[in-house]
Amino acid sequence: RSGEMAKLTQLIDNEVFRAYATYTTIVLLKMMLMSLITAYFRITRKAFVNPEDTASFGKGESAKKYLRTDPDVERVRRGHLNDLENIVPFLGIGLLYALSGPELSTALLHFRIFAGARIVHTFAYLIPLPQPGRGLSWAVGYAVTISMAYKVLKTALYL
Amino acid sequence: RSGEMAKLTQLIDNEVFRAYATYTTIVLLKMMLMSLITAYFRITRKAFVNPEDTASFGKGESAKKYLRTDPDVERVRRGHLNDLENIVPFLGIGLLYALSGPELSTALLHFRIFAGARIVHTFAYLIPLPQPGRGLSWAVGYAVTISMAYKVLKTALYL
Amino acid sequence: RSGEMAKLTQLIDNEVFRAYATYTTIVLLKMMLMSLITAYFRITRKAFVNPEDTASFGKGESAKKYLRTDPDVERVRRGHLNDLENIVPFLGIGLLYALSGPELSTALLHFRIFAGARIVHTFAYLIPLPQPGRGLSWAVGYAVTISMAYKVLKTALYL
Questions:
Q1: Which chains sit next to A, with 3 or more Cβ pairs under 8 A?
Q2: Where do the TM regions start and end (chains A, B, C) (predicted)?
Q3: Which residues pair with A66 in a beta bridge?
Q4: Does A145 sit within 8 Å of C49, measured CB to CB?
């Protein structure tokens, strides 16, 4: 058993893999933060979607008026969905990239730029910053993922 | 080739990794079930979104009336999206956590509580249960993921 | 350090794992393409959702009219969400399946059919093809994922 464990921890002891673990955890935690921000805006704007969520505001019509959409809530939800659309590819392609034997410095460059771009994207979406702020931050994260995908296919291609 | 295979299967022979594989597969299958429930409600409520999906109901206006939203369909879709938002972080952070060398009993506790919380969340959303049922089940899964993220960053942090 | 690297690259040298890496990267890139197609339709149809995205069309009412939904944009977005709902389970279950020691030919069959089904699904959604074209392509990808999940649970089950 401890022999197996030793082999497993070799993976987590590898510096490229540790960097992947660190930045993946950071961007996933950032994505999870969107749930809390959505909840915050739903409560402060009193804008809910499920009838059972407005029960504490009373019954009937007095509660029903809080079943509505709010621009701030919808904005956070769009940011959350954009995270899913971009962080899921990073999760998968980044893992394969980390296992494809990149140089540590190159890998760190990819992971840091991706994480930075997604954090900037969130601020650009929520403040919001004028375009092309949000567009550029999205494109940078996208390009990093494409670059990692290229390395994975170059190293591992088996059709 | 068989030497490589032996090394690969060492990963799947590790008990913590097997537990991760089991519970991840369970929650992903549970998430996939949401597609079937959505399809079931779309068909029984006759509520579709794509014109080509209503072609079997005839042409023109007679089919067009089934291009509508239905509260039950929308409820399942919200549950499905909530699964994506919460199970994707579990997928990534849970994998890194399983590789970070946790105690088997601690890992099992995390995986079991997360899977249980997400199953309760689905029932709470679909029945629906009065709040804070759904909110609490969501928070429990969220907290488990944060706890695993903490262990990953403590073990692997490499910025 | 180079000893660790050697061990890591053993994973990527395994043929089943290389096949997983290849097909996962392909379906994730295909999913990422949906972002570009959405942007293309938003720009050509002039249908935006964020006020800051319409600033280049002028100020006030002249720009506000481009804050609207467009059927083609919404169709691509539904295809993108369907990808997320189906490719996330493939990402997780496929990885565990690749580590569960399947025959190379069986694994290739699973990965190829899944990737093919998702590509057909995208064309079926965007053209659109008459049903049951889209429904069948969705079901094929779904069935492949269930088949891999069965193998994972049979090999690794640890509750």
A1: B, C
A2: 20-41, 84-101
A3: none
A4: no
d(CA B100, CA A20): 13
**Chain B interface, mutation test: which of A18, A40, A57, A69, most B Cβ atoms within 10 Å?**
A18
How is chain C split into domains, by residue range? 15-44+70-157
Q: What radius of gyration do chain C's Cα atoms show?
A: 20
Q: What is the pTM of this model?
A: 0.94
What percentage of chain B reaches a pLDDT higher than 70? 93
Please identify which residue in the block is written with the tokens 């105690």: B103
Measured between CB atoms, which of B21, B32, B35 is closest to C96? B21
- So what's the pLDDT on residue C7? 53
The pLDDT value given to residue C8 = 53
Are B12 and C99 contacting, i.e. CB atoms less than 8 angstroms apart? yes
d(CA C136, CA B55): 16
* Helix H or strand E encompassing A129: none
Of the residues C7, C8, C56, C104, the best mutation for testing chain A's interface (the one with the most A CB atoms within 10 Å of its CB) is C8
The 3-state DSSP class for residue A48 equals strand
Q: C91: nearest CA in chain A? A: A92
Give the residue from B90, B156, B89 showing the smallest Cα distance to A12.
B156
Pick from C5, C11, C29: CB nearest A149: C29
**Could you tell me which CATH class the domain A15-44+70-157 is placed in?**
mainly alpha
**Residue A47 pLDDT > 80, yes or no?**
yes
The residue whose two tokens read 């549950």 is B79
According to DSSP, residue A59 is labeled S
Instruction: At C44, list the tokens.
Output: 């050509």
Using a 10 angstrom Cβ sphere, with 0-12 exposed, 13-18 middle and 19 or more buried, the burial of residue C1 is exposed
Q: Is the dihedral of CA B33, B37, B40, B46 positive or negative?
A: negative
